[in-house]
Amino acid sequence: MDRRELADFLRSRRERITPADVGLAAGPRRRTPGLRREEVAQLAYISTEYYTRLEQARAPRPSLEVLAQVARALRLSDAERDHLHHLAGTPPGPPPGPSREVRQSIVDLLHRLPQAAAIVISAAHEVIAWNDLAAALMEDFSALSRRDRNLVRRAFLGPHPKSGRLYGVSDGAEFAISSVQHLRAASARYPGDAELTGLVAELLDGSEEFAALWAAHDVTASPTLCKTFHHPVVGAVVVNCDVLDIADRDQRVVIYTAAPGSPSEEALRLLSVVGTQRLDVPG
Known about the structure:
Layout: H1 3-15, H2 37-44, H3 48-55, H4 64-73, H5 78-87, H6 104-111, E1 117-121, E2 127-130, H7 132-137, H8 151-157, H9 172-189, H10 194-206, H11 208-215, E3 226-231, E4 235-246, E5 251-257, H12 263-274
Antiparallel strand pairs: 1-2, 1-5, 3-4, 4-5
């Protein structure tokens, strides 16, 4: 355990986080750059005295649980989390759970694709970023809770539990199979993530279809190159489906585009104007 390096590293990570980043008020008399030690301790569910000793290079080796809690409180990246473990003299285990933090450059990319519907999904199939056209084509994700933004849960346990009814897509059955395969692989990568384990348990309990697919133990999913959305306002929208992997975050960018000059391109152009309004619902 390199106590001095660990102390300096923790201090540098603490000082880069603003109170607003974690939902705290800055207050009128804040002199400390970033968070205070007691605020980090509170976020990590450890005592202020113990965290202070860590930053003063006087603490004994922290447990794996404490390291995980401190990493979460300081919003460490996977590389920083591994570095923290090495400084503490404890080899890093598997990542605690699927990352939900989307790089700003990826968010900016989504909004630079005005003629494409694009979303970012986590390893657990949660929609964690989207552009306006994706919200118009699929659903206004900003109006949903985190729970309802999980596509696997929506496919098997949503308002239309049959997989073919997920946003009216033509490849509902194929999506059901591939989503279960992705979820099983993610469960192996994040064995200690309670949220992911709970999602699987909920799906096994609530869907016989999911349980049957889960029992197959398949982890290889075939890519979907084209699909059709049946939208309540503009009708059928045929799109190409391209997936870009964000390897360091274990996330995927899914981009839907229509063939140039096609009726579907016109439909997407109309949706970009209409947005998430429902023209089929009388005012």
